[in-house]
Design a protein that fits this description.
The complex is a heterodimer of chains A (206) and B (298).
Chain A lengths: L1 E3 L18 E3 L3 H9 L5 E4 L3 E2 L5 E2 L2 E2 L7 E2 L6 H7 L2 E5 L20 E2 L2 E2 H4 L6 E5 L3 E5 L6 E6 L5 H6 L19 H11 L13
Parallel strand pairs in A: 3-8, 8-11
Antiparallel strand pairs in A: 1-2, 4-5, 6-7, 9-10, 11-12, 12-13
Chain B lengths: L8 H5 L7 E4 L9 H10 L4 E4 L5 H8 L3 E6 L11 H8 L4 E4 L2 H12 L4 E4 L7 H4 L3 E5 L6 E6 L3 E11 L5 E2 L9 H7 L2 E11 L2 H6 L4 E3 L6 E4 L17 H10 L3 H13 L4 H8 L1 H7 L7
Parallel strand pairs in B: 1-2, 1-8, 2-3, 3-4, 8-10, 10-12
Antiparallel strand pairs in B: 5-7, 6-7, 8-9, 9-11
Helix pairs in contact in B: 3-4, 5-7
Classes of the chains: A alpha+beta (206), B alpha/beta (298).
């Protein structure tokens, strides 16, 4: 869907009400996904069951691929976002078993896989720019491509964030506290962007 | 004389043999060819290789019924309900092989087949573990630019199964006017198969098709069997015709929790019913009337 009327936000991506959502165009899904390949997608929002130090994501399986401990949904469009978007933003709950040194299956490529940087792998997109969790905001050190702590949310200690991460985060100097949203931003989110709580009421789960 | 393609669900399902590669249309919990899926389960097919773009209860049910040896798709899940439990149980027991795709590469395999090509190039799989687990993806280099790609091998399914709104007896398949972007993969899929079975909500006259040719999304030259199956996507929704049967989906999801409870579900609704009408009777007229979408005349 291109240019939808955001005042009439559908309550699900697969809802038949999407058909009636006023928009400038409804294009075939393969055309919509080709927008990624053309490099015209500025930001992609993605998540996964696991994330590693380089921002690689896994939404396929925990354990071996042939006989996994937990079988998850599959690669979906996460791989396409990760490969092609100019930058991605990752939203994921901050838990030690999710933040691992090496994901069990790379379904979305971050800044490097097995020592090969994403440019060397041939990926056109810019990779993850930020990771937002329930504890902190993180980014990636340009040189090493490894995850770095940007800020911790009010009431959270740096140590608690590191303890909830099973690889070593890059932490340099005094880590600032995440600035809370302004009353204007809250008003926009609660009353203008998402008055029915479609996003606010949802939970992160893969 | 021009061949008429109208047949019963059982007659159409009769062409599906053990070990075949079957492409399934639809998207997550939308417009999957469920009446045909039920017929395959009643027939007791084994070792099927399923292909799809974005799947849910269709693949989960066939897997839970023991009909499947491998699947090739980008997603199997139950949408708002969570993970697909039969799929999960069989994958975690090592009973099915899963060949991984992203949303684009799952379309690309059908695109290549529909275009008569042997592969389609994509950068999406580079660096991921997809090519390690899916033999239908191999790295290649563009002869013009030197860029790296993964070649996604074309598929040509033995049979593609699609559910739509209307068709005439010759197999001209139509969707209601306001079709929606995610219906297009079914159209590509139907062109990447040796045989195509289309179930429809209603068989319409040739005059109705001739008067609205712009609604025809799959022309008769691609279609081998047409089956009339009202509520043929139930409990999935069928765009602008009926909505999800949330009550039945909840019942299915609860039943799929264990092998035993799922076997009981299959006995009650699928294998214990002789045909689609008996299935619908089991679901109940009250449920079916509630999910109808009210709107303007077609």
């Amino acid at each position: 869907m291109i240019g939808p009327d955001l005042d009439r936000m559908p309550d699900s991506f697969s809802d038949s009400s999407l058909i009636d959502c006023p928009s400038e165009a409804q294009i075939p899904v393969e055309d919509a996904l080709d927008v990624f390949k053309r490099g015209k997608m500025d930001v992609g929002f993605i998540s996964g069951a696991q994330i590693d130090a380089y921002g690689n994501l896994n939404s396929v399986c925990i354990g071996s691929h042939q006989k996994p401990t937990v079988r998850l949904v599959g690669c979906i469009a996460q791989s396409d976002h990760a490969a092609h978007a100019r930058r991605t933003m990752i939203l994921i709950p901050h838990e030690r078993q999710r933040f691992v040194e090496r994901v069990d299956f790379v379904s979305g490529v971050g800044h490097a896989v097995n020592g090969s940087a994403r440019k060397m792998l041939g990926l056109p997109g810019g990779g993850p720019s930020r990771v937002f969790t329930d504890m902190a905001v993180l980014d990636f050190e340009p040189k090493s491509g490894r995850m770095r702590l940007v800020s911790v949310h009010p009431g959270t200690e740096v140590k608690a964030v590191q303890d909830a991460t099973s690889f070593e985060l890059i932490i340099s100097g005094e880590v600032p506290t995440t600035a809370p949203p302004s009353s204007h931003e809250l008003d926009l989110i609660r009353h203008r962007i998402d008055p029915d709580g479609v996003f606010l009421g949802s939970t992160l789960a893969v | 004389m021009r061949r008429q393609k109208v047949s019963s669900l059982a007659e159409a399902a009769a062409i599906i043999e053990d070990g075949m590669t079957i492409a399934l249309g639809g998207h997550t919990l939308r417009r999957h060819p469920m009446a045909l899926v039920h017929s395959i389960i009643r027939k007791g097919c084994k070792d099927l290789r399923l292909l799809g773009w974005n799947n849910g209860i269709d693949m989960d049910m066939l897997i839970g019924a023991g009909c499947v040896t491998s699947i090739e798709t980008s997603y199997v899940g139950m949408g708002m309900f969570g993970l697909a439990r039969n799929y999960r149980r069989h994958a975690e027991s090592g009973l099915i092989t899963i060949l991984e795709h992203s949303e684009t590469t799952a379309i690309d395999m059908f695109r290549a087949g529909s275009m008569g090509l042997s592969f389609f190039p994509s950068k999406t799989p580079l660096g991921t573990d997809m090519p390690r687990t899916n033999p239908h993806m191999k790295e290649m280099v563009c002869p013009f630019t030197g860029e790296r790609y993964a070649a996604i091998q074309a598929v040509m399914a033995d049979v593609a199964l699609v559910h739509a709104h209307y068709a005439d007896r010759y197999g001209n398949v139509q969707l209601r006017d306001r079709s929606w972007m995610d219906t297009t993969v079914d159209i590509i899929m139907a062109k990447a198969a040796k045989q195509v079975i289309v179930s429809v909500e209603q068989i319409v006259s040739e005059e109705a098709v001739l008067a609205n040719p712009q609604r025809t999304v799959i022309p008769s030259c691609f279609v081998d069997y047409v089956v009339e199956a009202p509520f043929g996507a139930h409990p999935c929704c069928c765009d602008t015709w009926y909505d999800y049967d949330v009550g039945h989906l909840e019942l299915y999801y609860a039943a799929s929790k264990t092998e035993e409870t799922f076997a009981a579900y299959l006995r009650e609704y699928i294998t214990g019913t002789s045909d689609h009408l008996e299935y619908l009777s089991g679901v109940g007229i009250r449920d079916l009337m509630q999910i109808r979408v009210r709107g303007e005349a077609a």
